[in-house]
Amino acid sequence: QQQVKQSPQSLIVQKGGISIINCAYENTAFDYFPWYQQFPGKGPALLIAIRPDVSEKKEGRFTISFNKSAKQFSLHIMDSQPGDSATYFCAASIVAGKSTFGDGTTLTVKP
Amino acid sequence: NAGVTQTPKFQVLKTGQSMTLQCAQDMNHNSMYWYRQDPGMGLRLIYYSASEGTTDKGEVPNGYNVSRLNKREFSLRLESAAPSQTSVYFCASSVGQISSGANVLTFGAGSRLTVL
């Protein structure tokens, strides 16, 4: 049973557009929801994260929206740039516990 | 700080050969993890070590063994490599305590393994 489902698998956006990646989770005990960004040939790196006591978190052009009742959260990238082209993973975990990852979304931002 | 260091970066094995992937972190983290990444399948947890002296199976442990050598080092061993183990392997670490940032994973650069 996949505990974190991520969509879409791939996404193509024009420069300046908005990129949206969605994730849904099953386990209501999850209480930490990070997004990781991975460039080709590199390991994933934390991009932004949220805890379920808030509905939105913004850091620069990156925003997480969180819907606890629907068990869904999403990453929005405003004013997408070619340098944002990467693979994005959502994840969920219990405090100090191991993380469960979505399958990843490959984002391509066209100039 | 180097963060998480993995060796080797690339390795080609023949079916049945054995090898060990090495991982070391210099952040004084308590927890360490081994993941494999395959196209379209995200990051799947192989084994993890919540603290020095403990190890536990993850989602896909078959065909692998691990050793938490000390607080810094966590190795992954393939005793008899199979083509299905062709993958990119990532080591990661985290603080592993109930505190701010406890669940943040720091990943190494990865080890690309091909089994022929």
- What is the average per-residue confidence, as pLDDT of chain B, rounded to a whole number? 92
Q: Give the overall pLDDT of chain A as a whole number.
A: 94
Beta content of chain B comes to over 45%
Q: SSE string of chain B, helix = H, strand = E?
A: EEEEEEEEEEE
Oligomer: heterodimer
Helix content, binned percent of chain A: under 10%
| Rounded Rg of chain A | 13 Å
* Global shape of chain A: globular
Largest sheet geometry of chain B: 7 strands, mixed
Principal-axes geometry of chain B comes out as: globular
The helix content of chain B, as a percent range, equals under 10%
Biggest interface: chains and residue counts?
Answer: A-B, 24 and 26 residues
Commentary on this structure:
The complex is a heterodimer of chains A (111) and B (116). Chain A has strands at 4-7, 10-14, 19-25, 33-38, 45-50, 56-59, 62-67, 72-77, 86-93, 99-101, 105-110. Chain A has 111 residues and is mainly β. In chain A, the strands form two sheets. In chain A, strands 2, 4, 5, 9, 10 and 11 form a six-stranded mixed β-sheet that branches. The mean pLDDT of chain A is 94. Chain B has strands at residues 4-7, 10-13, 19-25, 31-37, 43-49, 56-57, 64-68, 74-78, 87-94, 106-107, 111-115. In chain B, strands 2, 4, 5, 6, 9, 10 and 11 form a seven-stranded mixed β-sheet that branches. The N and C termini of chain B lie far apart (36 Å).
How is the secondary structure organized here?
The complex is a heterodimer of chains A (111) and B (116).
Chain A: E1 4-7, E2 10-14, E3 19-25, E4 33-38, E5 45-50, E6 56-59, E7 62-67, E8 72-77, E9 86-93, E10 99-101, E11 105-110
Parallel strand pairs in A: 2-11
Antiparallel strand pairs in A: 1-3, 3-8, 4-5, 4-9, 6-7, 7-8, 9-10, 9-11
Chain B: E1 4-7, E2 10-13, E3 19-25, E4 31-37, E5 43-49, E6 56-57, E7 64-68, E8 74-78, E9 87-94, E10 106-107, E11 111-115
Parallel strand pairs in B: 2-11
Antiparallel strand pairs in B: 1-3, 3-8, 4-5, 4-9, 5-6, 7-8, 9-10, 9-11
